[in-house]
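User: structure tokens for this one?
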Amino acid sequence: MTVIRPATPADMPTILRFVRELATFERAPDAVLATEAMLTDALFGPHPAAEAVIAETDGASLGFALFFHNFSTWEGRRGLYLEDLYVTPAARGRGIGKALLRHLAALAVARGCARFEWSVLDWNADAIAFYRSVGAVGMDDWTIQRLSGDALAAFAADSR
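Assistant:
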């Protein structure tokens, strides 16, 4: 039986391993800059930026979800944003991803969130089909915009 539980600081090595495995799957194995210390501070420091849950079966960690709250001015309420959902390859197809999503959906409802959102890579057809199977709707009219690295620093410093 799969148990979904809140992550603890002791889970940081596992979470970082899962993050690295996810990055490899998403064709960006060298993109992970996070360290255990950074994730520990982000999840358990004085001002937590996110939360995480671990999926376990018989004490073995098989997946995780990392999430945080966003806010909708139109709804006037916060939402829940799923940053990462990962299930180990050997554990896929056993309902663990669905259990993690259902856990977060229930958490969003319990916290009075207006919506539960996440992004998926457009080439990940299996994930998209899975998300459609649980009732998720693609936001085709919206595209993600990002400033990062040198572009972020340059824009922030530009006083024009």
